[in-house]
Amino acid sequence: SGKAAGKHRVAVYDERSDEARHDRARLADELRAGLARGEVTVAWQPRVRLADGRVMAVEALARWRHPERGTVSPGVFIPVAEESGVIHPLGQAVLRQACRQGQRWAAAGTPVTVAVNVSAMELAREHFLQDVQDALRAEGLAPDLLEIEVTESAAMRDVRANAERLRALRDLGVSVAIDDFGTGYSSLSYLRQLPASVVKVDQSFVRDLTEDLTATEASIVRAVVTLAHGVGMRVVAEGVETETQRRALIALGCQEAQGYLFARPQDAASVGDLLQ
Ligand code: C2E
Ligand code: MG
Ligand code: MG
Ligand code: MG
């Protein structure tokens, strides 16, 4: 009966993976429908200059308010969107909302760069550049007020092709940030090949910063800062939650940061108040 139990386990396992696949397919259908119903909105998180707290940019973070499931996190629905192709209409919707909001802040006399996260799949799409141009034009946003964030691992997957795509964006006047830097296991020297103006140091390195600036985490941040500055890029620390981290980052030469210590992702009106 050990065999029977083994069989049973296998059967259960198969059922569960089928079920998981089915669940994800259903979630993708719901996401597609929810997107059309306007359930996907944007939360805005300011990025500040460490020296004086000035808001340097605002990142658009997708939020899905599902009628029954409540707020679904992007950590859940972005992979589902990528796997199902819903990422394309979703990315378009976020890009449009970001351009529209950026235009509103500019028109209110408080121009600020809006940063939009883009998946590797979106960047690789033939129409991507045209979509960005269309969004800028339709919403009346100046290209230099838009920044596109691409993760290090996405950018490095095909560094030549992506460098070219990012260069085309830059030629439009749009700036580029490399997101989650340090998690992609690529050599620091690859950074040089990307036409980015900003490097965002991943939260995992920021989280463990202490007063000890000789610790490994501090060395990693210092190395990124040195290299990035050497190639003319700015460095943004992600996920800054404590005063200790803030002080360490300043000591390590990092100039900008994002994190709960400064501001949580919030609605556009609250960011508007901050900008005033
Ligand atoms: P990301 O682009 O690296 O964004 C930073 C994440 O860290 C956000 O999570 C933000 O809410 C969170 N965060 C900010 N400050 C702190 C802090 O001090 N402590 C902690 N613990 N977390 C902090 P969120 O909004 O859940 O987004 C997760 C990821 O989902 C994003 O990481 C991004 O990769 C992806 N994402 C979000 N919106 C979009 C989108 O419109 N398109 C695409 N392709 N991806 C998106
Ligand atoms: Mg980002
Ligand atoms: Mg990040
Ligand atoms: Mg991330």
TrEMBL record:
Transmembrane segment boundaries: none
Organism of origin: Deinococcus sonorensis
Domain EAL per the UniProt entry, residue ranges: 24-276
Name the UniProt record assigns to this protein: EAL domain-containing protein
Superkingdom of source: Bacteria
